[in-house]
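new request in #modeling-help
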Amino acid sequence: MATAAPLTVGVDLGGTKIQAVVVASRRVVGQARHPTPQTTAAAVMAEIVETIKEALTATGAPAGASPRLRAIGIGTPGSVDGATGHVSQSSNVPGFLADVPLGPTVSAALGNVPVAVDNDVRVAVMGEFHRGAGRPFKNVLGVFVGTGVGGGLILDGKLRHGRGSAGEIGHTTVKPGGRRCPCGRRGCLEAYAGRLALEQAARRKQEQGHKTDLFEIMAAKGRDRVSSSVFADALEKGDKVTTRLIDDAVVALGIALANAQNLLDLEAIIVGGGLGDRLGPPFVARVAAAVGPNLRVPNHPPAILGTELGDLSGAVGAAVVAGG
Amino acid sequence: MATAAPLTVGVDLGGTKIQAVVVASRRVVGQARHPTPQTTAAAVMAEIVETIKEALTATGAPAGASPRLRAIGIGTPGSVDGATGHVSQSSNVPGFLADVPLGPTVSAALGNVPVAVDNDVRVAVMGEFHRGAGRPFKNVLGVFVGTGVGGGLILDGKLRHGRGSAGEIGHTTVKPGGRRCPCGRRGCLEAYAGRLALEQAARRKQEQGHKTDLFEIMAAKGRDRVSSSVFADALEKGDKVTTRLIDDAVVALGIALANAQNLLDLEAIIVGGGLGDRLGPPFVARVAAAVGPNLRVPNHPPAILGTELGDLSGAVGAAVVAGG
């Protein structure tokens, strides 16, 4: 890559990995992925800087701070102060429960290039809206089915923030008094469709005597948690507990997404996240079929689509947020 | 009233009554209410014209078409073609299941004054937003609990139409597989909170042997249907079936409104409609209390308010839509 186009970096910070991309002229021209250090916030921030440097090197640009590097965007879990670039209240990233000066620290380490910090789900929605499956539309709900279930809403082409907390489709009540959600309430969409809640439900089923191969598949893959790919493998092998849990997840998504559609009359709903991407088009098609019967205007459904950027939605969206 | 300010008329067409107001300088300066003829669309439109004339007379303006009458807005049930002023698919207004040239007919009868036609719930939301309880806010959901449950959404100060069907909060699924809704599906908010569904549920309870005074109260008031005021009287008298049904309606509203809040992070939710207005502030306070536990961000709830315009929300909103 030897163009003179200015470069923008996007970073998707997660509990297990740091994904960086370099964008030039709206195209990804370099990328890198590192594991998230499981130690301190300082170590995490140092690793973000290393991941960015590696992604820049992958473009053919000189190592370290580049004169062509215009801006960096970072999507992170937790509560974000967009004005200061500080993050807090993330239980997924080591050290990020406390107040962490993420933006200023990364900026200082890379020649004081401007750094924009935003919520991980929101930047992923921006990625799919501007560069992925959402491009043909102006009114889109992005639903990211991962460890939890996050959402972001684009209305009339703009990300809706509300008073700071819009997009929480994961905490739509889909079954009053139903399964306990990681948020503490009962019957939320996330309690039926989030990876963590599914893992907990599978463990309870096993303790209740239901036979499942899910945890053997997990062990065989060398994992210590039931990842999206473990669920995908168990589903493919016809594991009954897994099949039943995913059936319930589809039903729950059908209710929650139809509720949103009935209220907002959107053009499209994009289903992504680790579980959404891994289970792929057959899962998205099942969700679409489950939405249909719950629609007030069934003959005019929204397009229900998988992501186009897959696990790069967040990093690309972070670059978009930074102007790239 | 002897000002020279131009007059705008707003009409709220319902299945049982036609309410007209005359607005000058943003104030209601005259009004009239007639029963809706239970015969033909032509009779209904003729009665709308008479109601408008009576409302204009009440302002002190000369009878009939007034040179100061600038425009007329009409809110109607059914499917509205805003460009032509035609209405169809309303089962509540006699003759309005077929295509009815409502706007052109009323315009021709009143000196060809411009007539704007819009959906009854949407205009009621516009009334409360611009002239009622919604004035301090820019992001508001209006929920009208009447024969059915309708809704309208104001985002960033603008009514959201979506692709034509936005606002259907009444068909949020609040209990999967639950009570049959007049729309044919199961478990909708309207099945638990709409007046018609409540009346049907009360009849089933009575047929199942539950004792209720609801239908005696209805008969004593000379009604042939369980109106909002009949429900209010039965509730006040401690009728057990009614108490239980309204308890369930509050729970259902708590779920549906919290779902909308979690997704949109609104400033305010306005609860109106025949049942909402008649049961009044204690009912609205109960709904607010039921919303709270379902909120993702419980320490930052929306204001949950009753209407300020009461049963004039629709007529005033129709005048607003017509520029008054």
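bot summary: Chain A has ten helices and twelve strands.
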